[in-house]
């Protein structure tokens, strides 16, 4: 059978996989994650600071402008590695391409700081950025949460926690279901059910949870099985990342695909790689968003693997440009 990856993507995938450690050694993974990053475009102003104790890097492509979008970006890395430096080029590209100010969040990493540390830091940065919007020359009504991989999960969760504060969510190949990845797709219930509910609300919540669980079970048999090995990001890595991250796999702030309700969320762009174990989680979330009446678009790129955004591949450049255009239109 022919390879699903394009020739260029296959060569790059194999080279990256050969240099990347298997799951289990946090130190080795973090060391591998900092190498081989290309430089991004020039941005007029780039400065480091703190958002109520959380390190941030602020990218401003046109100081002195007003009413621009404001992007709060969460980097990927399985919640255990990467940081402001590893995703500098991506943030530069988004800022330069969209005209938006980008605030990149240096959230706390697992396993030293398990869930909910990263989600709490993400919300802290969103609140800080929104309060600073006018001073940054941005429209507080045009705030977007964004992230790739585990950062896409954090963006998703942040939008679930504070939908009234965001105008959009840019989600790049996010992991959305811990239970399926860790082999516990039959988990039921959510922490939302612990609150006092009326019988009608409890019934609706149970129905939505059952639907989300059924979707997750279907996801586990699709792209995760097809691309769980041989495509750089492996199913074994993903399961290990989830284990380090912690939290209840059924909690919607861990596994957003299992959230009981998605209505009221902002417009969404999902950027997915076709040859990615996480592809079907993203597609399933898009279907649920659409069914809930959310304006949701999916950009699915064939022939590429998890992590392609920003890599020296035509699809990576195209995806960044399309995401930047989407950001310009938000608000």
Q: Which labels suit this protein?
A:
331 residues, alpha/beta, 8-stranded mixed β-sheet, 8 strands, 39% helix
Summarize the structure.
By secondary structure, this protein is of the alpha/beta class. It has helices spanning 7-19, 26-33, 88-98, 117-131, 150-161, 178-181, 199-220, 223-227, 235-245, 279-291, 314-328; strands at residues 45-51, 54-60, 68-74, 101-105, 138-148, 168-172, 267-275, 296-305. The chain has an 8-stranded mixed beta sheet with strand order 1-2-4-3-5-6-7-8, sandwiched between helices.
Strand line-up of the largest beta sheet: 1-2-4-3-5-6-7-8
Largest sheet: 8 strands, mixed
Radius of gyration based on Cα positions: 19 Å
> From N to C, what is the helix and strand string?
HHEEEHEHEHEHHHHEHEH
Structure class:
alpha/beta
The total of beta strands comes to 8
- The percentage of residues in β strands lies in 15-25%
> Tally the helices: what do you get?
11
Classify the helix fraction into a percent range: 25-40%
What average pLDDT do the residues reach?
90
The stretches of 5 or more residues where confidence is low (pLDDT under 50) are 184-204
Tell me the distance between the termini.
45 Å
Shape, principal axes of CA atoms:
globular
Explain this structure to me?
It contains eleven helices and eight strands. It is of the alpha/beta class and 331 residues long. An eight-stranded mixed sheet has the order 1-2-4-3-5-6-7-8, with helices on both faces. α3 crosses α11, α4 crosses α5 and α7 packs antiparallel against α10. The radius of gyration is 19 Å and the shape is globular.
